[in-house]
Amino acid sequence: MHNGSSISEFILLGLSNNPELGIVMFLVFLTMYLIAIAGNLLIIIITNVDPALHTPMYFFLGNLSFLDIICTTSAVPKMLFNLFTQQKRISFNGCIVQMFFFTVGMDTEFLLLTFMSLDRYLAICNPLRYKTIMSKKAYFSMSVVVWAFGFSSSSFHSSSTLWLSFCGPKEINHFFCEVPQVLALSCSDISLNKYVLIATDLILGLICITLIFISYIFIMFAILNIRSTEGKKKAFSTCASHITVVLLFYGTLIFAYFKPSDESSNMDKEIAVFYTIVIPMLNPILYSLRNKDVKLSIQKVILRKILPIAKF
Asked: Which of 43, 137, 140, 164 is the most buried (most CB within 10 A)?
């Protein structure tokens, strides 16, 4: 596709201009990034290796971990490189690629969290029909829909940006290329881009969070109708991790996109740190520490797979 830009690169202003502070942030964010990658890879491995976790809930969890890897890897390595080298340049094409993969991860995760809430609704509110409704074909089809929407949405945003002209300035007051910040630098008419971005935000934001909210209202009533205390605890424990992840993910993004426009742009970067690295780091911890099945699977993988290889 033709690049309508007269600019071949952008300048990412990053998180700080202080070299000493940059080294400290490099070490902190590198540690967090490695924890995020290791934790999510572990979730992906155990959900594929352990037959006990070959269920819809853990299939979606594996997808969520893969999305977290995409989101954090699209933004954080470049940020770490810039912090370490004190270079702030990113090529125009590199910026588009970064924007594409980050948008794929975020847009897909919106829908995936919605389908995960639907899975919990069916498991708790319709336990007798759950296995029939959530067949392997059904949840595979759901994942195809989720990923197809994410790639389609991201492809539009990225490809339409390629046709825009960027005449200057070329400084992005951020540590990675995100759609709103890149569009703000264009000297072309970006009306269509803005309309599609708003429509996507409404679909993914309002509709998805409404469906999740409705699902958990029914789940709450179903749990209250369970007679045994043990049964209530078990039902709630299967939802607790997902509820926490939803609150972190949606809460951060709602604050980011609906905060007052006169707030400092530095706050945008601080919030972005949360959804590009903090949440991907916390998700596997939340699911492993609060889930007995995941903890047992991790122990089995370590004892049966990893330790024998290490001894050999």
From this structure: 43
Eight-state DSSP code of residue 92: H
Helix 19-49 vs helix 56-85: crossing angle, to nearest 10: 160
The residue type of 49 is V
Residue 1: the pLDDT is 43
* DSSP annotation of 263: S
DSSP 147: H
**Domain extents for the chain?**
9-311
- Compute the C-alpha angle 147/99/167, nearest 5°: 145
Q: How much is the average pLDDT of 201-227?
A: 85
Torsion of CA 151, 88, 72, 162, to 10 degrees: 0
Q: Which residues contact 294 (CB under 8 A, 6 or more apart)?
A: 43, 46, 53, 58, 287, 288
User: Does position 74 have pLDDT exceeding 80, yes or no?
Assistant: yes
Question: Distances in Å between the alpha carbon of 186 and those of 48, 61, 248?
Answer: 44, 38, 32
127 compared with 305, residue with greater pLDDT: 127
Q: Regarding predicted confidence, which is higher, 85 or 76?
A: 76
**Could you report the per-residue pLDDT of 225-235, keeping only the tens digit for each?**
887 777 778 77
List 9's β-bridge partners, or say none.
91
The listed CATH number (2.40.30.30, 3.40.190.10, 1.25.10.10, 1.20.1070.10) that belongs to domain 9-311:
1.20.1070.10
Place of tokens 């509110």: 125
Short-list 27, 105, 46, 41, CA closest to 72: 105
Average pLDDT over residues 136-145: 93
Q: Which residue carries 């690049």 as its tokens?
A: 3
H-only helix segments in the chain:
19-49, 56-85, 92-125, 130-133, 136-162, 179-183, 191-201, 208-224, 229-258, 265-273, 279-289, 292-301, 307-311
- Specify the DSSP class assigned to residue 36: H
